[in-house]
Amino acid sequence: MATVNSVVCFFFLVNIFLSSRPTQSVPEGALITELPGFSGTIPSKHYAGYVTVDESHGRSLYYYFVESESNPSEDPVVLWLNGGPGCSSFDAFVYEHGPFNFEKAKTKGSLPTLHLNPYSWSKVSNIIYLDSPAGVGFSFSKNKSDYITGDIKTALDTHTFLLKWFELYPEFLSNPFFITGESYAGIYVPTLAYEVMKGIDAGTKPNLNFKGYMVGNGCTDDEFDGNALVPFAHGMGLISDELFEEARIECNGNFYNPLNESCATKLKKVDQVIDGLNIYDILEPCYHGPETVETAPSYIRLPSSFRRLGETERPLPVRKRMFGRAWPLRAPVRDGIVPTWPQLSNSHNLPCTDNEVANSWLNTDIVRKAIHTAEKSDVSIWGLCTDNILYHHDAGSMIKFHKNLTARGYRALIYSGDHDMCVPFTGSQAWTRSMGYKVVDEWRPWIVNNQVAGYIQGYDKNLTFMTIKGAGHAVPEYKPQESLYFYKRFLDGLPM
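Above: the chain sequence. Below: its structure as tokens.
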């Protein structure tokens, strides 16, 4: 009799436990059942669709959600944001850390082929790729006045998105939650994290299990970012000692806001010297037109390290870098209108890049149907970066946001590809040091596969600055294995 009672008691407790956890509540029509170009079994569940953040305006943000390939019920939920402003997070999905590596179509008009990415961040986390703000990627509004936007409005909308998204997927509410992004998302991430923190303090429901954030090569502060390029160029051997000293003296160390003609002249000379370089990765070649590949004779042997100079380590490097000038080369984010990439280049393509693979895949009707995008009457065409929006930087320096967040104990990882000249590591290194926190992990290398992968400096209050050796602006595109390593360590709260 005691045995029977024990069994009954056991099943009673199991039922209580199961009933206490949210059940799977997938929004109708959100599950992705096939992906054109991919012939295998999708390694985890994928969902996509829209969350309306303003019913009266019909302002809706598009998301693509990839469940973890490990343990989705317990692994962290991570929001990823690309920058721009005005760039779609499919940039990261296609070219950086998404579940697939995309192989360029072999014949014109056919689809790219998708292969599983062994270094996808979905190996260790659930990840939401969000197109933000409205007007970017597949996100849209019925009221076009919403395309005049800025930092504060974007953060508020994205916070609304998160609250509604977790209502749609309540089974993930107890998972640790992190916010991540790169480039202009150096603005998006801390402003959004601050809104999330305020919501938690105010008791806003649902209650997000927010743990921290991560920013890669991110815009932060006009003075620190603006003063970063000249020391970077000098340290990398791109400008002479003489020119560096002349600029330093004439500008009195203020390179971002020249106060006299002599300083402006020296900075113009710096610009001229580095003009021919690829700003996203100074090691990569610049393509000035159709690519011409010169093959060295077989009897000329080059070290493998030289042959790989500046190449991405992705197995299918489908995105070529091309020559062009682009914001924010020695033009830091200041209060006021921030031009989008297409507005700067007077074209619909991101300067210096060939995004043919993403364009050809995401603008195919069968792909759009498969991933549940809006009708073409709402979003006629997907573009990596858009000129649909008029964007205002209205949140000021991000340093005050970082101070507020880290003071509350939220973990922060600030990482930089050390060969990026778009947002050089020298600026991120300087502003993290300026926070005044005690150094608890003095500058040292971090190691992957018995090789130095970069350098790290840890501060108290859970703030870490890290470089990735040999990487450019979009770090996971260049160093996918190293990126997955530091990503997992950060999410797990482990030292590098």
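Residues 225-356 form one domain.
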